[in-house]
Design brief:
Number of helices: 8
Helix content: over 70%
Number of strands: 0
Order of helices and strands: HHHHHHHH
Radius of gyration: 20 Å
Largest sheet: none
Length: 181
């Protein structure tokens, strides 16, 4: 399963990184930055889910081309986890590159976006002040590329694990001779 895992995981991870990067590069000017962050999470999670559909296709390909059309749930789930791991690793590495080289100030920009959102939330001032203090306390984490790697790796891996479970349930095909009534 190494070759299909690497193939489908790489495709998923690379497409995810490219889809994240394209709007990031085109919406970087200061007047669009707030808009970019407003839709960024929606685009981000949607992209992750769509790209992680390669987990399904990878399991199906593995089952049909290498296993003669039969695969147990456990083997399908393992294959899905391997594909997910490769995609998560690639996206995590992309995150380090993004934070270190492409946009070294990204963490600060995100903090400012969240602070603005909190201030415009319409919540009581005491709540806003508490939230702003918490955001400021997290500034160092937002600027830590290794923390961001772990965050994005984990996010992609968790979503991919869910997709791997669903895919394994859908794609499992046991040998009819070994099934019991």
């Amino acid at each position: 399963m190494t070759r299909p895992s690497f193939k489908f995981g790489s495709i998923s991870g690379i497409i995810m990184a490219v889809i994240f990067l394209i709007p990031f590069l085109f919406m970087r000017d200061s007047k669009n930055l707030y808009s970019y962050f407003q839709v960024g999470e929606i685009i981000g999670y949607s992209t992750m889910i769509l790209c992680l559909l390669f987990v399904f296709f990878g399991i199906r390909s593995y089952r049909d081309t290498e296993l003669g059309g039969m695969i147990s749930f456990g083997r399908a789930f393992s294959a899905g986890l391997m594909i997910t791991f490769v995609a998560s690793l690639i996206f995590g590495i992309f995150t380090i590159i993004l934070y270190k080289f492409i946009s070294p100030n990204l963490g600060n920009e995100m903090i400012e976006f969240y602070k603005r959102s909190i201030m415009e939330s319409g919540k009581p001032q005491e709540f806003i002040n508490e939230q702003l203090t918490q955001m400021e306390a997290q500034r160092e984490l937002f600027n830590n590329s290794l923390f961001q790697f772990f965050t994005m790796f984990s996010t992609v891996f968790i979503i991919g694990t869910i997709i791997a479970i669903i895919s394994a349930l859908i794609l499992k095909k046991n040998n009819p001779k070994t099934q019991t009534a």
